[in-house]
Amino acid sequence: MPRPKRHRKGRGRKVYSIIVDGETEKWYFDMMKKHEDLPRIDVKPELPKKKRLEDQYDAVVENAKNYDRVIWLVDFDNIIKESKETTKGQASKIEEFRKYCERLKAYENVSVLVNTPCMEFWYLLHFETTGKYYAKCESAEKALKKSHLKDYEKTQKYYKKRNKDIYEKLKPEQSEAIKNAKQLGDFNFKNPESAKAEIFKVFDIIKE
User: Fold this and answer.
1) Model-wide pTM > 0.70
2) Do strands 196-197 and 110-116 pair parallel, antiparallel, or not at all (unpaired)?
3) Higher pLDDT pick, 163 / 3
4) Residues whose CB falls within 8 Å of the CB of residue 50, separated by 6 or more in sequence, listed in order
5) Residue 119's Cα: distance from chain center in Å?
6) Using only C-alpha atoms, what is the Rg of the chain?
7) Strands 69-75 and 41-46
8) How far apart (Å, rounded) are the C-alpha atoms in residues 172 and 55?
9) Could you give the strand order of the β-sheet that contains 69-75, starting from the edge strand earlier in sequence?
C-alpha cells in the first residue's frame, strides 16, 4: 500500500484514497479519474491484496495516516450472505462491519459508504428510479443487462474500452443516478437488507 506524505491543509494537491473490495469498482474509479477534471486533488483507487473485511479496515486505517481523505466503499451483498451463514455464538459479518465503522468515527478524514447489493445497482439507478432490494448482485446485474446495458460485462476490457469506457457510457445519466440514490437514504444497521447506493457521496466529497 503506497504511503505518500500527508499534505498540509491549503497547500499543494490533496490526495484521496478510495479503498474498494472488487476489481469492477477500481476500474470504474480509474475511468472517473481519467474523465473528471479534478485540479485540486489526486484520486487513488486501491484494491487491497486481501479482500477480508479486516484487511480492508486495516488498509483504511493505514491510509488515514497518509492521505488527506479516505473513502471505504463496501458492497454489502456478501456481508449479508455471510451473516446469514454465521454459526450460532459467533459474531456475524454485519456485527464485524459495525465494529469497524464505530472505530473509524475517530478519523475525521474517513468516509464509509455502502452499496447494497453492489455496483451494478448503482449503474441501474442511472436508468431507473427504483428502491427494489436485490439480495444478490447477480440479480441487479441481470436487471441492468435486460433493459439498459445489454452488452455489460464484468471485465477490464469492457470497463476500459477505448471508444467508450464504463464511465463515459454512464456519465450522461449521472445526475439522474445521484438523485435516485439520494432518495434511498443512508445505510442503516437496523435495516441492512434495503437498497442503497451511497457511492453517490463520492462526487460530493471530491468537489468539497
Assistant:
1) yes
2) antiparallel
3) 163
4) none
5) 7
6) 17
7) unpaired
8) 35
9) 41-46, 14-19, 69-75, 110-116, 196-197
Could you tell me where the beta strands, DSSP code E, fall in 49-161? 69-75, 110-116
The Cα 129–Cα 182 span in angstroms is 11
DSSP strands (E only) in 78-140 = 110-116
Predicted local confidence at residue 11, as pLDDT: 55
Mean pLDDT score of the chain: 93
Kindly state the cell numbers that stand for 202.
463520492
pLDDT classification of 88: cutoffs 50, 70, 90? confident
Summarised one tens digit per residue, pLDDT across range 105-144 is 999 999 999 999 999 999 999 999 999 999 999 999 999 9
Separation between Cα atoms, residue 159 and residue 161, nearest integer Å:
6
Residue 163 near residue 24 (C-beta atoms within 8 A): no
d(CA 129, CA 185): 13
Q: What is the largest CA-CA distance in the chain?
A: 52
Under 8 Å between Cβ of 22 and 47: yes
CA–CA gap between residue 186 and residue 44 (Å, rounded): 24
pLDDT in tens, 175-189: 999 999 999 999 999
pLDDT of residue 60: 97
Q: How far is CA 152 from CA 100, 123, 134, 176, 177, in A?
A: 33, 11, 18, 20, 18
pLDDT at 51: 84
